[in-house]
Amino acid sequence: MKGFGSDNHSGIHPQLLVAISAANLDHAPAYGTDSWSENSLTIFKRIFGAEAQVHFVFNGTAANVLALKTVSQSFNSVFCSDISHLNQDECAAPEIMGGFKLLPLPSKDGKISIEALQKALIRRGDQHYPQASAVSLTQPTELGNCYSREELKAIIEWAHKENLFVHLDGARLVNACVYLDMTLAQMTTELGVDVVSFGGTKNGLLFGEAVIVLNKKLGENFKYQRKQLGQLPSKTRFIAAQFSEYLGTPLWQDIATHSLKMSQLLYQETKSIPGVEIRCEPQSNAVFAKIPQAWVKPLREKFFFYVWDENTFECRWMTSWDSTPHEIYEFANLLRQLSQNHFLPFPKGLQ
Ligand SMILES: Cc1ncc(COP(=O)(O)O)c(C=O)c1O
Questions:
Q1: Ligand 1: which residue has its CA nearest to atom 4?
Q2: At 166, which helix (H) or strand (E)?
Q3: What DSSP letter does each residue of 75-94 carry, written as one string?
Q4: Which of 17, 176, 207, 218 is the most buried (most CB within 10 A)?
Q5: How many CA atoms lie within 13 A of 226 on its CB side?
Q6: Does residue 6 line the site of ligand 1, with CB under 6 A?
Q7: Does residue 48 contact residue 253 with C-beta atoms inside 8 Å?
Q8: Topology given in CATH for the domain delimited by 14-248
Q9: How high is the pLDDT of residue 343?
Q10: Burial category of 153 from C-beta neighbours within 10 Å (exposed 0-12, middle 13-18, buried 19 and up)
Q11: What is the atom index within ligand 1 of the atom nearest the CA of 172?
Q12: Does ligand 1 come within 6 angstroms of the Cβ of 316?
């Protein structure tokens, strides 16, 4: 069943499947020593800058844990938003596998502020207290909105002034780049981000994420830590071949542009339906909407999606590289029908 469950629910983009197939030749050396890996590294460096160190891993949780391990030790803490994937959806892997403490901060629309960071930056040098080493920002946030360029710049400058490193959880970074009309380098290297978890899976790859260490003073022990965490892919060529196709052609922009257009269409088609209360105009590939509880079941019988907040019935409708206008119109029609039935005037005589 197609729907708006997640960009993780869609399949592999056909162009990437072709890239995998093209790499499926003969034998090749393993563990990143093959020509596909070398080629993809050249592409990453072209995009993120010559200093970028790139390491492939299997999934986003591992990318976050390993990225943050480059900027923290066992006595460190990392600031993140209270609703971040790191804090809420990684089953304490950052603490257990990363070996550092997360310090979740109150967020507004998924974003943390300098004020909240400043307030939490306490007891530095106190041997009894976990020592803050980094700030982790999710771009776009878990609520689908984006930190503006100015917001990012201000937080990064503040963090560096306070001797904190900056990590970007960019599981969907390309979506933010397209929305904000920024290049990947403008969003990361040029702003001084130290380390990035760069996603692929949510934008059409079979699987594969890249940890991009941009600060040349970091990452010395990455390869050992990745191996220890079971994240060193042996047949690396199949991840590398996908990233080369994805980043070496306009594919990443095409996919992100399409899924943004589809979420904006979904927003336009549903925002005026009585009973639907949308959080804000989408800034990436997700629409967050409160609907009456009774609508969830009939809608989900045709189009799967997640209820994001079980108390308010705010739902997340997420588009993907393969979302179509047709299914959005169908979904909106279904919502309209439910709305009409819900707000049916009382029959005459009963008023
Ligand atoms: C913002 C964000 N970061 C990281 C991840 C990690 O993903 P994975 O499920 O691949 O570990 C996700 C997955 O949904 C995510 O939404």
A1: 60
A2: strand 165-170
A3: TEEEEEETT-HHHHSSTTHI
A4: 176
A5: 24
A6: no
A7: no
A8: Aspartate Aminotransferase; domain 2 (3.40.640)
A9: 87
A10: middle
A11: 1
A12: no
In angstroms, what is the span from residue 61 Cα to ligand 1's centroid? 6
Closest atom of ligand 1 relative to the 201 alpha carbon: 10
pLDDT (tens digit per residue) in 128-180? 999 999 999 999 999 999 999 999 999 999 999 999 999 999 999 999 999 99
Pocket test for ligand 1, best of 8, 89, 320 (most atoms within 8 A of CB): 89
Please state whether the predicted TM-score (pTM) of the whole model is above 0.85: yes
**Amino acid occupying residue 36:** W
The rounded Å distance from CA 202 to ligand 1 centre is: 8
Distance 62 CA to ligand 1 centre (A): 9
Which numeric CATH code is attached to 251-338?
3.90.1150.10
Q: What is the pLDDT of residues 264-303, one digit of tens each?
A: 999 999 999 999 999 999 999 999 999 999 999 999 999 9
Give the start-to-end residue ranges of the domains of the chain.
Answer: 14-248, 251-338
